Amino acid sequence: MNPRPLTVVLIVPTGVGASIGGFAGDALPVARAIAQISDTLITHPNVLNGAQLYWPIPNALYVEGYALDKFAAGCWGLQPVHQNRIGLIMDCAIEPELQLRHLQAVDAARATLGLNITDCVLTDRPLQVELRISESGASWGTIGNPDSLLRAAEKLIKQARVEAIAVVARFPDDEGSLALENYRHGKGVDPLAGAEAVISHLIVRTFKIPCAHAPALSALPLDPYLSPRSAAEEIGYTFLPCVLAGLSKAPQFVTPTVGQASCLSQVLGGQDAHPTREKFYANRRDFESQDLWADRVDAVVIPATACGGSAILSLSGRSTVQIIAVGDNKTQMQTTPEKLGIKALQVNSYLEAIGVLVALRAGITPTSLGADISSLRCLSD
Amino acid sequence: MTTHFISAEVDLSDTAEQLHSAIEIELQKHGEPLRWAVTDVDVDRQKALVEGYVLVEASPVAA
Lengths: 381, 63
Description:
The structure holds two protein chains of two kinds.
Chain A: E1 7-10, H1 28-36, E2 40-43, H2 45-48, E3 60-62, H3 65-72, E4 77-79, E5 86-90, H4 96-113, E6 117-122, E7 129-133, E8 139-143, H5 146-159, E9 164-170, H6 178-184, H7 193-207, E10 211-216, H8 240-248, E11 252-254, H9 264-271, H10 277-283, H11 285-288, E12 299-303, H12 310-315, E13 322-326, H13 337-340, E14 345-347, H14 350-362
Parallel strand pairs in A: 1-2, 1-12, 2-3, 5-6, 5-9, 9-10, 12-13, 13-14
Antiparallel strand pairs in A: 4-11, 7-8
Helix pairs in contact in A: 4-8, 5-7
Chain B: E1 2-11, H1 16-28, E2 32-42, E3 47-56
């Protein structure tokens, strides 16, 4: 009999100043390591995107953040693919020379990597991206013309029948700002990340297809003190290659059939006469096939101070999911598992987290590997 | 269509799943939740501090 495959979700929230993964795809080594001891790794563009750098991980699923939240909530499933047909949206605010740089990056991905990128659309209005930092210290931003973005996506989907969308928006250069200087030196919060998430979330929410974003920026002057964590974004003219590589094999999203509850929360919310989690998942067996749903998740690895996202709150309700909170990946957030009442295994480092996953895979209780083993509890009436 | 940044306080719930629902309900007062996170918890007041974006549909997508 085949053992249950080990499915691990790795999350490093975007734009919260994570000391590992808050820069230029610098959680990619963590993802590569975790993928080695998982059957399936589910993670998101912020973890895997290193601008010019990307590492194909055969058993990793590249899932945009909005879709990851929907997956964790049981609303959407993930359907692996061999290859997606990709379309490109470019912000018309990008200068002609910078547009050409991006089109050449696309051509390189087609010719050198064999990716299926077929069509490009220029937005009918400038997207007008603005950047902000919130009171908590997280980066966020707005786009002035979201409808223009969605019209471009609709054109690619209807006319070119693309299955995934890469977006390149013109971001403010922000040269000389303290936030950018800190970021280049491996400190602080990625000032672009929050606005990037809004762009991809809008498309994924509206069209339910994979999407990822790369900012278009002017090249920066050479900085001899550039942090290794930020360096991947300064070795070329665009951040687009990683996005194209990730989208080329990103899973498609599947939703329950008509008449079935679309989210676990709907069932637990009382729309079913006898709401049970087991019944919800049992009802879906007929359309699950090879698709991956939240009930397949065994473990989630998350920075210990960033447990307040939608995906973690959803998955923490599943008794079979082991949440592993990593202490030394510091963030600007203050939401530890204890504050939220989430049962989690706290570890110091990703190395320790990987040890926990090895133990889980082997069917060994992680605490039995320590020196102190607590006494057996005796339950009384 | 416009996107808006929202800060909110939500009462802590018995379970994380209930808190998830309470946050979505609170944000839906302002629009459709697009992305959110609890950024801190005021333990004394038993409040979750939430930051997020909502989407407000002003008109259908049209050129």
